[in-house]
Every structure is written in C-alpha cells, then in structure tokens.
Amino acid sequence: MVNNPLIANARYKNETWPVRISNISEIEYEIYGHGTSYQVFIFPRACGVLVAITNWNRCGYIPYRDIIHPEDVADYLDMGGSIDTRTISAGLSEIMRNYILLSPVVENYNRQRRTLIEKIQCAQV
Question: Which CA distances in Å does 48 have to 13, 38, 80?
C-alpha cells in the first residue's frame, strides 16, 4: 500500500531539490531525493521516534519535533554528507508533520502524560 507521495524541498547553499516521501506501510516510508533512496522505518516511542534507515545501516532516536534539522540527522543517526542529511531531514520533517505527530500513539502518550501530571499535582496538595 503506497499512498500518494508527499513532496518537500531540501536546500543546500544555492541548490534546492524536491524530496518525495512515500508511505509504504504503517511504519515504513521511502524518502527519495537528489538521486538517492532511503528506506525508513519509524517507531513512535514515549518521547520521540526510533528511526531506522535500513539501506544505510543507520538507526537513532529522534525527539518529537515538527521540524527535523540536518544537524539532528547527523547527530542522532550518525550520518555525514550535507546532501544526505538535508534530504533525510526534509523527508522526516514531512513525515512527522503529516503522519507521526497526528498518530493515535502520540495522542495516547499526551493523554497519559496529562493524567500523570494531574495525579502528581493532586498528590502535592
């Protein structure tokens, strides 16, 4: 099942290129840009997402954000290369905004977190 791909733009210095993001399954995506394809699996966790780029043998934990910066990709996924990090960060940002941050997992986490905070505040009174 491949949904209609999302399109984002990545930029480095004076060059801009399109990045196509295809949702393959509930946790699998393909990010394609600048002639390279990245097979990405995303697993939502309590405070972020576990991102695995299987065809590059990279995996890392990225905090929930609606914008993933190239520096995040370089640090959390141990990737170098300005073109690669910018392509992946553009793709991950679109995925986070359009799929992950709207998912029931995140909504459930936020609901549980609010409940826990309320219990702690009531216990302190």
Answer: 29, 20, 22
